[in-house]
Design a protein that fits this description.
- By secondary structure, the protein is α/β, with parallel strands linked by helices.
- It contains 17 helices and 14 strands.
- The chain has a 6-stranded mixed beta sheet.
- The radius of gyration is 23 Å and the shape is globular.
- The two termini are 44 Å apart.
- The model has no long low-confidence stretch (mean pLDDT 93).
Amino acid sequence: MLTKTVLKNIILDQKIHLKLPKRYVKRDLEEKLTYATSRQIVVITGLRRVGKSTLMLKLKEKLGGDYYLNFDDERLLEFTVKDFQTLYEAFLELFGEQDTFYFDEIQNVPDWERFIRRLYDYGKKVYITGSNAKLLSPELGTHLTGRYLQYELFPFSFKEFLSFKGANISPSSLDTTTKINLIKLTLEYLENGGIPEFLAARNRDILKLLYENILYRDIATRFDITNTAALRELGRYVLSNFATEVSFNKLKHLLGVKSHVTVAKYFQYFQDAYLAFLVPRFAYSVKTQSLSAKKLYTIDTGLSQIAGFNFSNNLGRALENLVFLNLRRQAKEIYYFRSNGVECDFVTREGTRILEVIQVTAELSNDNRKRELDGMLAALTEFDLSTGLIVTLEQEEELEVSEKVIKVVPIYKWLLEHQS
């Protein structure tokens, strides 16, 4: 067990270094968290280095309090659930009685939820962050069910990226010069992604270190994976093949593993760590849906630089990934659609109701117009919708085809108008 003196030293040492970055960008999530003042525990999950700790510090600055500890600290490797009481006493002796607690990367402590439940029962307000989507797994639910609000933080959205670049643009005033600038910024955003630290330093080693930490600390170590060569190969595949269909059976040969079940398990680890996402094909039958191929998307196109991804030849896929991420930020239920040899990239659903269908292409041209429209019309007909959307890099028009209205919009405009 850690002594109170050791914990006090760590608390004070971390306190000295708690500083917001000079170029702090207000996050889209900030307002929601600021007003989450009910008794519920607030849980913020997301990829490493997307700004969870920075957001936590901003909340701490707004709401006050000194009870803060970041568990992603090598001095806390031996911290166990039994040390929480000593930590509580250290906080009391250092700062006196306070009602708000802030804990970063708390998933590093097994059984942490037991102490958090006690704080909740004491009437304390608790904010926690974690780098795993299953921070609140079914097992933990027995202790915290109905007592928490969970939010996901992603790399910079396009709106946040524009703020980082100092480009405050309103979608209602897009003159020609602004549009040209927005196209340039969109291409820059697609290539570099939205990891705040990388955008500030433009040092690729930051992305490499982030990637290594996800693979080995968040996945291999956490899930006791010994075949790290297969894990690394799958990571390279994810970064290079987003916005494509994935076959677990085919990948088992590429990775050199015996079963497609192992591949599926690895992909689940990647999803839990927020590195990759799998989107199912829409089907009314759950069995058909589960047996159909999934489409793969990645958390950040900038990370794909590590795998040498060439954006100039794959602009359409990068745009599609960007559209997926924006839909995911809005917590929408996402599918892709395929029927009779035609495909529509995205279908979103709420309950039993289909909300929208979206097609993505870098450019709607003579070469691909029929294919894109056929997929869109098939989806609109299937779901009895009158309006569909095609997202492109810069085109904007409205089409009437087979009594359906299809709006073609540039991605920058769609992102500015449809970001939460």
